[in-house]
Amino acid sequence: MRVVSAALSTLAALVFCAASPAQMLNPVPPQPPASQAGNPLTNPEVSPGIEMLYQLDAQFAAATAKGGGPAFAAWFAPDAVTLSNGKPAVVGHDAIAASATWTPASYQLTWKPEGARISENGDMGYTWGHYDGVSKDSEGNAVKTSGRYMTLWKKQADGSWKVEVDASNDGPAADCCSMH
């Protein structure tokens, strides 16, 4: 009996000591530098679904940079929601389109995804990252805002992907919040 007890104690010690404290406290795998984040050849964690989300996010950003608010609104599902820092929720595609009237000349919104996740069955996912917005004050001086965003994507019945939720908040500089 004493031998079995000693063996179990030794086995337990080996199991608990084999995992380093960093492995036990950090369940998220380390992320590669941003330049490799969406490249399945240099980042084996990137599945085809995650790569597709990076591409959707990049297309969304490019369309918005070119077409302003109307192009931004075109990406939203009929029942979508936007959540912006210090503002009430905007619910529904039509309400989002009515509030997104800026032109690229009056406001330039850019963003870059830093990460993405996709559901197991591949019909929903989300991206997150850092955004910058540049507008002009009444005297023509540039006014810059920056922050974090998260976009929830959902595959629609017709096979297209639309934004279901877009949430953003003003935030500190991009280098403050990198994942470790």
Describe it for me?
With 180 residues, this protein is of the alpha+beta class. The protein is built from four helices and six strands. It has a single domain, classed as Roll (Nuclear Transport Factor 2, Chain: A), CATH 3.10.450. A hairpin with a 6-residue loop joins β1 and β2 (90-91). The longest helix is centred in the middle third of the chain and has 26 residues, at 48-73. It is globular, with a radius of gyration of 22 Å.
Mean pLDDT: 80
Query: End-to-end distance, in Å?
Result: 46 Å
- CATH fold-level name: Nuclear Transport Factor 2, Chain: A
Largest sheet: 6 strands, mixed
Number of separate structural domains: 1
CATH class: Alpha Beta
So, CATH architecture? Roll
User: What percentage of amino acids are in beta strands?
Assistant: 25-35%
Structural class: alpha+beta
| Number of helices in the DSSP assignment | 4
Order of helices and strands: HHHEEHEEEE
Q: Report helical residue fraction.
A: 25-40%
Strand order of the largest sheet: 2-1-6-5-4-3
What's this, in brief?
This protein is an alpha+beta fold. It contains four helices and six strands; from the N terminus they run H-H-H-E-E-H-E-E-E-E.
Layout of helices and strands:
Blueprint: H1 2-18, H2 21-25, H3 48-73, E1 76-83, E2 90-91, H4 93-99, E3 107-118, E4 124-136, E5 142-155, E6 161-170
Parallel strand pairs: 1-6
Antiparallel strand pairs: 1-2, 3-4, 4-5, 5-6
Helix pairs in contact: 3-4
